[in-house]
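Working notes for the structural subgroup meeting. M.R. asked for a predicted model of this chain before we commit to crystallization trials. I am recording the input and output together here so anyone reviewing the notebook later can reproduce the run.

Input as submitted:
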Amino acid sequence: MRFFLQLSKIPHYTTLQKFAGRTSTNVLERIISSFILFVNTRHIFAGIDSTGFKIMHASQYYAARSKLRSIYAKLSFGADTLMQIICFINAQLGPTRHDSINFKPIVTKMSEIKKLSEIVADKDTVVRTIIYWYGRNWAGTVSYPQEMNRYLYGRLLVDTERR
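Returned structure, recorded in token form:
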């Protein structure tokens, strides 16, 4: 991305934080999704995952002692795994939510950018969401390829010709 923007060095992280804070989320979504359009690819080989973390800098001891409530953030993202480009990001504050809740908007936004050839997600997301939502709306098959690092990954093959 640094070469694409013709920058001699990577800007300081606070510059990126200030830019993200001052720009609306719609503009940021368009900027992120525009990078996939410059790559010569017909389909997106999508990978979807989520992670949650605390947004507190206090130590656990002082937080428990002063009875502070922890603030959590949930980051869900969809990326083209072959080109290693992030296509869509969804960040939320508040109590933790299940990954399958954010799956539908991520797939919808990514399919608006380019056609999806395959979707790879963890097994829990696949079982709960793909079978119930994705199977009804798009023609596809669900398969579990192999066990990788103790976790089963679900894989959805999308029939792009019927879309």
